[in-house]
Write a structure and sequence with these properties.
alpha/beta, seven-stranded mixed sheet, Rossmann fold, about 250 residues
Amino acid sequence: MISLEPKPPELVCDEKLNVVLNRLSLTDTATLRRLEVVEQLIQECGLVREKPEVYGEDEKYLNPIRRGLWQIPRQLAEFSIFLSTRKINSFLEIGTFSGGTFTFLMGYLNRFNPGLRGITIDTCDANPPVHLWKNWFDAQFIIASSREYVGQSFDLCLIDGWHSFFGVTWDYVNVGRHAKLCAFHDINDDIVEYWPGNDGGVPRFWRQFRALHREKHFHEFLYHTRGERVMGIGVIEQDNVGRNDYAQHTP
């Protein structure tokens, strides 16, 4: 007998992620470097339900609950394609929340770097979809802060934890500065910058760091459908980062 009971919204969100992970596994790598393809896959994952107007025209891809990807799809798509041209064997995300961004990035990057190892950490458990990961890639969720990883080196570190100026600085000093690629979420976000107690937050950190370290390589992904200052991803790239040769990848 078929149950007519509606599925729990959390399960609906996770099933959407799993469908996208399957599509990532079946799509050739050349296609996975096409912006419109990657952006559509991110939209199909579903976005964390937020207050109106945050996502602009992408609001139609909201999930029914605060679960999914807390991202502007075009920003994350451009960031992902950029990462696909770099050799990444290890990835640490600081700030898991519900795990949508980590899940997508691991599924995507694993296509270009088979055997990629990933760790995502947070100081609280928002029930990320760890049950999906074992089928697709090698990853762990750990309750921890960047303090437990001081001095450890990763090919990619994504800092998306504390959004205060002190918090992002702390995470960068602990781990980010040791990564070949250190990425930051919310480098161009009005809410984060002016939120009480953030002291300028991630946007202030990003502006000041760029001004003080002109010798480094910086990349920004800021697109918003309405041209607003929402989220934004920034990357600091060290000179010794290995780059993937497109020709080495077989579809």
